[in-house]
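Continuing the batch. This is chain 6 of the set; chains 1 through 5 are on the previous pages. Same settings as before, nothing changed between runs. Recording input and output for traceability.
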Amino acid sequence: MALGADFRRLWVAYAASEAGSAVGTGALPLVAVLVLHVPPFQVSLLAAVAGLSAALIGLPAGPFVEFHRKRPAMITADVVRCAALASVPAAIGLHVLTYPQLCLVAIGQTAGAIVFNAASGAHLKALVAPADRPAANGRFEATFWTLNSVGPPLGGAVTSAVGIPVTIAIDALSFLGSAYGVRKLRAPEPAPPARPSGSSARWTETLDGWRYIARHPGLRALFVNSQVFGAGLMATSPLLAVLLLRDLRFPPWQYGLALGLPCVGGVVGATALKPLVARFGPRRVLLASGVGRALWTGLFAVVPAGVGGLLLVVAAETLALGGSGVFNPAFASYRMEATDDAYLSRVIACWSISSRSSQPLGIVLGGALAAAFGVRAAMLICGMIVASSGLLLPWRSYGRIAAG
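Output for chain 6:
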């Protein structure tokens, strides 16, 4: 695998920020509950407001990133996220933290992630040769699942030992580590694409990412698939917590084990991507893993109490994350190849904006279904929605790489 030194520097930068984020997983909701003592509705509202507001911010950010250098955009996004998070322990220490500030921090975090991902995805394409992109994306995916398998338990231990402010400070500093890693990239950055001339282009270029997706049969199918899958899966997340902790009375350590242990499946899946592509080809791997990741969520509706229930949740989550570990880098590589360089940042930004808008709506849908039919029935319905996403994969249109 001919991945160069600059790829390794970018990978280390990604690992630094992801390690901090993994340690700080759930820190802002914890602050809302334990420091501000807000009601459950406001805890849920925190995520919804962050996603929807950041999506609005991301609309003009996509074109800006597209037509400017990517490394400064990545560094700026990291510094903004660091400053936003650092304001929380500072405000706690001064006893001036408020719920609106927490919402602004969450918005800044999400908006920074949209900008960083749009810039880094386009920049990664420039750093890595086409034949090495599945392996490069697989390494990022394996890193994500590895850190997220050990980060949340470690973060819980840090929070228990020294408090929430220290956990958030670690997360904030990790973004400085990421910015430093990006700053250390050596090779000259390729020039950004030229911005179309004419005032009308500036009014329409924000929407060009969605237009590009809509014109491309393969990307269009994967876009619809990702929105249905993501919304259905996110709808199950709070329902699973209610089912395991309230209804089945799992102790917190078992709940944490049920969330953390299956991340090993993501690591295995991402590591297996390269040999799978070599043997079966990228199309078969993408389609099979897209189906494989979607088949298991409905099993949560029949989880029993006790050890058997814990084993069933761990098994279902491991299989789902194993499929995601293969699918996510395979999809990222396909999107790189299918998207012209002049549109890639906007396509990634529009994809992120759509996902961060549809997923909070999925959470609301899950809550409404649970209120109407009960938690288990809602889990079954959401599981069927997730499974149906497999029908929306690009079964016929995968091979059409150029947008019409």
